[in-house]
Amino acid sequence: TQVDQGNVMIKLLHVEDDADIREIAKMSLELTGDFEVVQCNSGQEALDTVPSFTPDVILLDMMMPGMTGKETLEHLRKIDALKETPAIFMTARAQNADVEEFRAVGAVEVICKPFDPMSLAEQIKTAMNA
Description:
It is a single chain. Helix content is 35%, strand content 25%. By secondary structure, it is α/β, with parallel strands linked by helices. Helix 2 packs parallel to helix 3.
């Protein structure tokens, strides 16, 4: 983790295929000054990125072309450095059964879309400490 004026930056890997959502999330997280955000537009890109960037938390879209968020997380979990990394799913599909399924595959939290950019950073920090 980088040290920035005494503050420890939280390294966040954001996997989301929608460019607008990536932009809003990145702006809202970087505005806090607490997050170093690396974004990928697919599960495959995330897998290609993690050898050079080990995140403290993973924020995953659920519905993506190619690999779903759940499949992406299953692949990321095979990497030793990411076995215990908190994962948060961001999805429009958040029925109770879905939330239970996401928790079963290792999500610490599920954030519903549309999300609130003003509270996203706090939601992530709270989930990481849960």
